[in-house]
Design goal:
57% of the residues lie in helices and 4% in strands. The protein has seven helices and two strands.
């Protein structure tokens, strides 16, 4: 009821606080976009995403567990979040560990499981773990 009372209006009763100007956001975006991703790390990202769609190539039992894998947008978002993470950690380059650390958050909702997987209580996190364990790290 509290959420409904506060939010079901076109003029919310709360005030927001500005934490960054539009100019600061634009500068940060440029800096994040300039974070280097080595071709080997870019290929690693592509391999991870490709493996979500064709997991049988690296882990045959996954064939019956994954109904649909991540789209090319998953590739884009995994690269962008890895860049942002490197930037936030003060680095000018993306490491494979950045990719691994963010894979669950980026891919969790992008992998659809089969009914068999759901019946066996397999989670998308466990599928991502298996994929990360099988795709060679550069």
């Amino acid at each position: 009821m509290t959420i409904l009372d506060r939010m079901a209006t076109s003029a919310p009763s709360y005030q927001t606080k500005t934490v960054a100007t539009p100019e600061q956001v634009a500068i940060s975006r440029e800096l994040v976009n300039s974070v280097y991703i080595d071709p080997a790390v870019r290929q690693y990202i592509v391999q991870i995403i490709h493996t979500t769609r064709f997991p049988v190539k690296v882990d045959p039992p996954l064939k019956h567990l994954v109904r649909s894998g991540a789209s090319p947008r998953g590739t884009i978002n995994l690269a962008l979040t890895a860049r942002a993470r490197a930037f936030m950690q003060g680095r000018a380059y993306v490491s494979p560990q950045d990719v691994k650390d963010l894979a669950h958050d980026v891919l969790r909702h992008r992998i659809l499981l089969t009914y068999e997987a759901e019946a066996e209580e397999v989670t998308t996190d466990s599928i991502i773990d298996r994929i990360l364990a099988k795709v060679p790290v550069p």
